[in-house]
Specification:
Radius of gyration: 14 Å
Shape: globular
Structural class: alpha+beta
Strand content: 25-35%
Length: 136
């Protein structure tokens, strides 16, 4: 059956993030109905990739609340995610690996956490550790 996993994540995107990436993120939040094309990446081979930001359960306090907005001051997009899902196909790690090149950050910046319903301690997400799936 699998366990539910809480995903909490907040980033600023680079100003030169391709329009297709923006459209995909909007599509994932039901903001946009059309996407130009899906990139070739493991994340988009996951059956439930589109639901990553919208999934919810009763296993964690709070409500799913994911926001994607353009900030006129910084002239960049910000993505904030709080969701929980059965991470059957390792969707969260695959998403992190896909989005990493577009994150406006470097070094050991804290980006969020992943927490399983069976464990009280979360796995913290740092920018420089995203490509290490064994931590997720």
């Amino acid at each position: 059956m699998g366990y539910y996993t809480e995903f909490v994540f907040a980033i600023e995107l680079k100003k030169d993030t391709p329009q297709n990436v923006i459209k995909i993120l909007e599509y994932m939040l039901d903001i946009e109905n059309d996407i130009l094309e899906l990139p070739e990446h493991d994340f988009f081979n996951c059956y439930r990739w589109r639901m990553l930001f919208l999934s919810d359960s009763y296993y964690f306090n709070g409500f799913t609340n994911s926001i994607f907005k353009f900030n006129n001051i910084t002239e960049s997009y910000f993505l904030t995610v709080r969701s929980n899902l059965k991470n059957y196909d390792n969707e969260i790690t695959k998403f992190l690996n896909w989005i990493k090149p577009y994150i406006d950050d470097t070094g050991h910046s804290f980006l969020g956490y992943i927490r399983s319903e069976e464990c009280d301690s979360p796995n913290l997400i740092y920018y420089d550790e995203i490509l290490h799936p064994q931590r997720m």
